[in-house]
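Shipment paperwork, digital attachment
Item: protein structure file
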Amino acid sequence: MTIDLGRLWAERMTVAERDQSFPDSEPRDAATLMLIDRAGPKPKVLLGRRHQSHKFMPGKFVFPGGRIEPLDRLMSAVSELHPDMEKKLMERVANPSAELARAIALAAVREMAEETGLLLGVKRDVSPASPGEIWTEFAKARVHPDLGQIHLIARAVTPPRRPRRFDTRFFTADATSIAHKIEGVVGPDSELVELTWVPIEEATHLDISTITGVVLEELAARVAAGMGHHLPVPYYFMIAQQFFRELL
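Attachment content:
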């Protein structure tokens, strides 16, 4: 089913987000991870505030994330994607493959490590095989990424004719999946200057992008529905000035 999102996504967009005066480009595959703490009476999410000097969303609160890198395809994991999630990750993709699906999920884990210092997974007595770069920190800490802990919440493609376009998959994992922390990653001279745990309903009142607010609502709905992998995943996109939400 496809639903016009004019009253939800489009009407919330700021003037800057509506500006489609840029040369068009193909969206790049990207991944974001929403870490959630459900230990208390109200589920909380981890958000980071971007440095004011950044050209892309300066000063805004964001979920750690970024585009897929080649090494993400090579990193090992202690468990693989749930079959339902793997299937959804391969829908509406030009060249679908299980390799791409796991690389997208691993990119979310890597970006969390790079931007927050939090390594998600399972600690073991032996180190995982590492292809290099930030994944070396997982090997040092003996932390194995655990793809079975990750849930797919939403997918969104940046509208056409924006300066940067991404085909972003929004994942979530529980705070209990934090296996190690690298100190000194977040600070005044880093990409993220601070981290904060905020109840989901309060997070929507922070300085966030429109799509971040929309996906936070999807996360709250998923938590209320029990977080099952079988649940449909909303896919947000724009065609011919129309905003849509399709369920994968």
